[in-house]
Each structure stands twice: as structure tokens, then as C-alpha cells.
């Protein structure tokens, strides 16, 4: 017999059937592990993507899972309950994300106010609105909003000082980039304590915009003092979860791995270039021990054909009822926004 169907070979040689199928499963698992370690992209366009963020599932910290999205054109967006917002930049030394909101008022709008929506954050993440933001509201109804010069109002009503919208604010008198953009409209500055406060303000105001204070210069020398300039946008601060595992994984002397997590359990994983999943990449004993035992739910980049191939293999293996069954398969994970 010169040609033989592989299924006939397995049926004819049962001892070869088990070892062959085992090898195939292990090879596919190792391939998937390598795919995940290589799939953790480190940039989107010109914006670096470092821990704790990831734009591929299973990369970065689970606290920021499904938060950033990178389009095929290399455009990075931040997902929040109120929508998607283009990311202008990310700073890891002074942890914050700068986003723009196309719905907010801008200089080109002038006195023509467009419908807008309040910006909000998911409270289950480690994001927070930066105190370096200022919010300007335009054409607010004085029947519902206290529009007063803040210093004078606070002297008269100290217990209600926080509820006033400052009509004499510096930013209203010096709108960034377009000081004379408003001809007939009123402006006041108010920092909402919560999303609900922002919604109420927009209920009685025509529009709003966010201005953050960007720090320029450096304070390392007296010749280069720091200063701040106002720019349009929203600064969102974030926390970087620092653990022994994350420090060891990223340590160049320990292999310089990529911090990730199991997409099923969300437990920490250190993803290594050689395709192993360890506590840190130069720990050879651990890496060799875990190669075969890695959880398939943590695997990324599995093609549909590969998943079907494993499923067919499992079905076949159960069909022939081998004495030492192996479970080789990819656990599914339902993507969710929050």
C-alpha cells in the first residue's frame, strides 16, 4: 500500500495515535503562546503602548482591559461609557492620557453652539478626571445656574461658593487660541464634582468645553522653571499597578518580558519572546515547567482555522476513546466593553 489515509494509520497503530495527537496538541499550544507574546503591540500610530495598557486582549493590566482601541489606520481611541474619544498622547512618567472630544465647543464654533454630550469615565477602572482640567460653560440660564464672579459671590455666600459658575474666570477672559471667539455669548468656569453635575449644567447651558493646563519646562534647575499653558482637551489621570510580578517581568536582567494576564481568570502572566509564560522570562525551570500547562484562555491571535482544527481533533480523540485522554482546546472569551 503506497498511500494511506492518516485516519487509517491511527486506527491501525493505536500506540502511535496517542503520541502523535499529543505532539500535535503541544505544538499548537506552543504556537499560540508565541502568537500572544508577539501580538502585544507596543505602539498605535506614534503613541507608545506600555504597561499598564494593552491594545490586544491579554496584554497589560486587566484593570484597563478593553479601554484602548487601535484602528487599522493607527488611530488610538479611549473607550468610556459616554463614547469613544481620540487619544492625543499618553504620559507614563506623569501618568495621564490626553483626549479630545469632537462634540465639545471649539474656537471655530464661535457663537454657534452644537449639541454636545457630557464626558464620563468608568468608575470600575483606575481612571480619574484630573484636577488640572477646567470646564467652561456657555450661555447658561441664570434662572437655574448661579453665574456670578466667584470671589464676590464666595464672600457673600461662603457656604454656596462651590455651586457658582465663575463669570470672571481667567479662561473666560482669555480663551485659549481665540480670545475674541465669543461676541454675544456668556461664559463661566465651573468644575463639576461628578458626571451628574456635568449633566445638570449642560441641561441649562448651551455648550461646554474642557481646558487642561499643560506643564512646560522643568524644575530641575533655577534657569528652567516650570510653567503651565492652557490647551483644549481632557486630561485623564490613571494609576499604574506596581507589583513584584510586574517589576520582575519587565526587568531587563530577568529577560524583559511583557506583562499580561489570563483572559479567563485575569491572573498575572509574564509573556516571553520565546513563547513561554512565566513569572519572569529568565527563570528557565519555571518556563519549561509551564510550557505545556499554560491556560489556553490566555492565548491571543488564534485563527478560526486553528480553533476548528483543535475542535476536530478533540472530537476525534473522544471518538476513538483513548486510554489517556488529553484536553486540547481554546476556551472562548466573550468580549465586553466594561
TrEMBL record:
Keywords for the protein's UniProt record, in alphabetical order: Membrane, Signal, Transmembrane, Transmembrane helix
GO CC, one annotated term: membrane
Residues of the signal peptide: 1-35
Record has Translocase as a keyword: no
Keyword tRNA processing annotated: no
Any Pfam family the entry gives: GUB_WAK_bind
Major location (coarse): membrane
Compartments it resides in: Membrane
Transmembrane residue ranges: 294-317
One function term, GO molecular function aspect: polysaccharide binding
Domain of life of the source: Eukaryota
Membrane topology (UniProt): Single-pass membrane protein
Coiled coil: none
Domain spans labelled Wall-associated receptor kinase galacturonan-binding: 40-100
Protein name per UniProt: Wall-associated receptor kinase galacturonan-binding domain-containing protein
Species for this entry: Gossypium anomalum
